[in-house]
Structure formats: structure tokens, C-alpha cells
């Protein structure tokens, strides 16, 4: 049993935590409640923590000359490795939890109970700050409960505090279905929270030498139909404003209050060195930027019209003559070729922070725009942009949610414009492109369009199921009709790897007959899972 948390214990925790995540990877992946085949939280957590362990393995105990303790140095290595290897929103949040622990414990001579409690509190703050719109009933609720219980234990006994945190996390995980109705209807708990409980259990075992013996938090074997909702932007505010800000802590505290009065989804995350990442949803763009000017020095300003948004390795240097480049995340050989033809560096789907950072650096450009093409990759892209900023590279993330939006954004690039103006134009073009996905249901679910059963054809518009059918071609033409009913001049079709022969031709023929003034562009995308991706501009 340990009285304090030393560097050796940190390394054992990282190894045992990774073992636990790997053992339960499939279980956590299966906690996905959405009917399309995209549940990969367990995989993302494993990959993120693997990167943390690799960072520890590459350093065999050397200490930098910065006053940090051996355990603090080990925690910083873990946090840094997790950040560079973070995949998906769950991975990014986990990396921030580790960062909060490292920042608090780095210079603490001895980590006992009260020090661990303080670190968990700071880890919770960092986790919430990493999310633009925190949702209870998720990983955030679980880490908050662990931190609260650790503080409530009010003890220097490291074992007692660790046990209290792990037990509270397990109980908070069990309550997540009460906070998110879709979890309750599915009969499952939150996937990210489940992963954190495994890591806290591993910490208890390292400290005490005993298994924590928590109440079982695995999901029931039977899954009821679920009403699933994907996160989307605020309905009350039309724009998303983001910028980096060089400012003092006091100025940032005032800025938070000002932005809270202007809009919602306020998130301000600092790097500990005076640079902050500012995010807010507003209707008054100028007021949000002006508030940043008053607080300090804003830079890398990005504006996205939010109300309208409802495979190959990185190539050689592709910087344009003016020192700009684009990095695009994509899956499917055809889609990758389309982006490469537009002069972009293509990164395979579900990249880590480090992989995106490598691609950004490989461009050789001083100013880079990143197109993530997936809501789950946006946090990773933002983390990579922040890391690139520290290397002197100016990076803006245009929050594209589909490859068809990225094609629309790249089509309006103009090197004659200022970089900031070009990014805004690309964001507007992406936001003006409505997108749809057609796939087969992977599981039973109750969607906003009605009940779906495995094998049904689902047509999702802006991430929500709008149509459920039995015939693939009929469903594809029906969703295109529905989208064009709201207006449009150009339809882009990307056929997937499993699309039947002639699918694009049949959809094109339908559009030409029913919508004679609409142009249709069709490409072989080669993406998995989705026989057809549709964009309407």
C-alpha cells in the first residue's frame, strides 16, 4: 500500500489503466446509442491512453531542469502524450483530465489524499473547459462526482481519497441514464464515463494493492430501442466565434462574464502560459471580438455561421506560393483523390492530435486551414491547432461535418484574400452546404423518423434521421427531393465502397427529371458504411 503517489506508481497506473481499457474496449464501443455504425469511444480511449503510455516509455526517468518532481514529470509526460494521441471528443476530454492532474501535482513534494483531491478538482475544471457545450450525464458528470467525493473525504490518507473518488464515479456513472433520456431508453450508461471509472479503479488498485470492488457498471445485456440525438449548435444564436487570446487571468475572468451576457456555449481554455482558446455562440460577432480586444490580444479569429449547420498518409509539402495550405480529414480513396486534386493534404479518418499536427507541419506552410469533416474530430483538430500555434503556425479550423461541406469550402479558396477573410468565406460556404448520409441501421432504435430496425435504410440530414426505408435507391432519391424542397442549385453525390453499381446514375436521372434546373455532380468516394453522401448548395 502506498502513502504517497510517486513516479513509479504513476507509471504502473498508466500501464494498468491501459490494460483495463483494452479489456473493456468492445464493451465501451457497444455503449453507442445511435443506430449508425460509429460507436468507437472505447477504441478512442484506448488509442489516447496508448499514446500516454508511449510518452512515458520514451522517457526513462530523466528530469527537466524546471523544478518538477519525478511524479510530476511522469504525469506531464502522460498528459502530453494523451493530448498528441487524443482521438475523438472522449480522448480530448481525457487528455485535459490528465493535464489538470499534472498541472496541480507537478511541483507538489508529496501526493497524499488532499493533494489528490485538489488535482481531481482541477482536472474537472479542465475537462469542462475543453467542451464548448458541456452536457451532464457524460464523462464530465463522472469526473465531477469523483472530485467532489475526494474533497468531501477531507483526508490526507491517499488510499481513502482514491477509494472515495472511484466509488463516487461508479455511482455517478450509474446515474447517467437519469440525466440523459437516450441512455435510459437504450439501457446503457455513458461510454466515456465508463472508461474513466476503469481508470480510477486502476488507480485504486495501484495505491492499495487491492481491487476496488465497485458495484458493477457494465450495461445490461438487453438493449431497448433508443431515441438518439446528436449534439448540434445553439438554436438561439447564429454564429460561432473562436479566437486565440493573449491575456491575463483577471482579464479572462471579465471576458467570460461579458461573453456569457452576449451568447452561450462559452468555453475559454488556457495553456498555462497566458494564451487562451476562446469559443462562444453569439448573434453579434463584432461585440464578441471587441470583448477580446478589450481583454488582450486576440488572433486567429474564426467565424462560422452556425444556424445553417444543423486513407492516404500526409503528402509532401503543398504550401501555396503565399504560404497557405489546407489539411483535410477523409476516408475513402475517391474522396482523398478529390481533396488532393484541390491541393490539400489528406489525413485518414479518426486521426490523433499528433497525426493532425504532423500533417500541418508537413505542409511547410505558415498558415493552415483544417477541415475535420466529422463532429467527433473537431475537438482533435482544435487541439492540433493549439499545438501548432506553439510552433509558430497559424491554424484555423473550419468545422465541416461532412466531406461535401469540405468540397464546398475548398471551392471558394482565394489566395488573393487575407487569410482570415478566406477562412470566413470557406466557413460560410461549408455552412451553406446542407448534407445528408444514407446508410443501413446497425441496431434497433427509435429515431425522430420512427422506429428503425437492423438493416433498414436510414437517410440522415444534418445528422438527424429524416427517412427510414427498405429500398436504397428509393430512399436516396427521396432524401434528395426533401433537401431540394428547401432550395438548391447544385447536388453533389459521393458513392461509397458498398454502393451498388449505377446508384449515382439513377439518382442523377431522378434529379434531372424532377428538378431540371439543378446541376448534379457525382463521384466515386469509396467511403465505408455510407453508400451515399449528399451535398446540396
TrEMBL record:
InterPro entries assigned to the protein according to its UniProt record, in alphabetical order: DegV_domain_contain (IPR050270), DhaL_dom (IPR004007), DhaL_dom_sf (IPR036117), FakA-like_C (IPR033470), FakA-like_M (IPR048394), YloV-like (IPR019986)
Residues of the DhaL domain: 8-205
PANTHER family: DEGV DOMAIN-CONTAINING PROTEIN DR_1986-RELATED, PHOSPHATASE PROTEIN
Protein name per Swiss-Prot or TrEMBL: DAK2 domain-containing protein
Protein species of origin: Micromonospora aurantiaca
